[in-house]
Each structure stands twice: as C-alpha cells, then as structure tokens.
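Quick start: what a row looks like.
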Amino acid sequence: MEAKDKNGLTEKEFLAAYDPDKYPKPSLTSDIAIFAREGAAFRLLLIRRGGHPYLGCLALPGGFANAGETTRETAARELREETGVSGVELKLLGVYSAPGRDPRGWVVSAAYYAVADASSVRAQAGDDAADAVWFDVSYSTASDTVTLRGGEETIVITAGKETTEPERRLAFDHAEMIADAVRRLAK
C-alpha cells in the first residue's frame, strides 16, 4: 500500500497537483578562487568584468548554472570559458546567499577553490571576461587581512570586507569569498 499524507494524497497525486511557482526561486551561480602555488607563495586569478553589473571591476571567475548542471560542473565550465583553465580539482568553499549580494536579484552562489602548480596553469581571458590577472597573495592571521598585489593594483581585504582605498575594486561579495579561501589555505 502506498503511503498517503494528511490530506490523503499519494506522492504521485501530491506531485501532480504541486505548483512549483508557489515559492520564489533564486538564480544559481558558481564562483571559483583558483590559486597557483609557487613554492610557499600563492597567486590568485581574478578576471576584469567586461559587462554590467560591476563593469571593469575585478571578480572571481564564475557565472550562472545551466539547467541540468551541478554547481561543480558550472564552476568547471565557467572557469574554462572565462580563463581557459581546466583540469583542476575543485573543492567546495561554501554557499553565499546574503540578500542583496547581487544587484540583479536573488542569486545564490556555490563557491569553489582550487590550487594548482603555477607551471601548469595558463590563463587567458575569454567569454565575458575583459582580462584575466594574477595577484600575489599575502595573509596576516593577526589582523585577518588579505593583501592582493597585481601589476599596479593592490586590494586589501580585512575580516572578509574589502578595505581598499579610495574605491571598491572587487565585484559582488567576492572579498568575502577570497578571504574564506585564503583562510582555508592558511590552515
């Protein structure tokens, strides 16, 4: 005998009557913090956004999930499309869902990180990335401060928030993701 709920419905009957539009749905994205290791030093790959929102700002590679993709598959695809990097082991960093984290609406991101040997990673901007730039990473556990240096740019993240002056350089909540990833590497 098939189980029935308090309304006397079988699962098949319940699903036939279920309205999937009853609850609002977020969009789903994946973002990737890819690090290149050179001895004890690390570099982080950031892309410069080629479109709105945050046009011209730096960001982790990433983007929207396609139907039927896992977030890990989305991360691997977006990393390949935006930077040309593939074949790295992606590890789940966390899920980022703070209201307002994306000005386009309710967007939840599954963030991943990967560490590769610097000699095996070559990056080139593609898709909607205007540029792909490596940043040297330093971290002070005492002040919980991540400093990224690339070319003439320096980005400072303290306690998971960008504190770069005079203006913001990182898109979305990527400062928080970067700080979380660097803390994970420092363990």
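That is the whole record. Residues 25-186 form a domain with the Nucleoside Triphosphate Pyrophosphohydrolase fold (CATH 3.90.79.10). The chain has one domain: 25-186.
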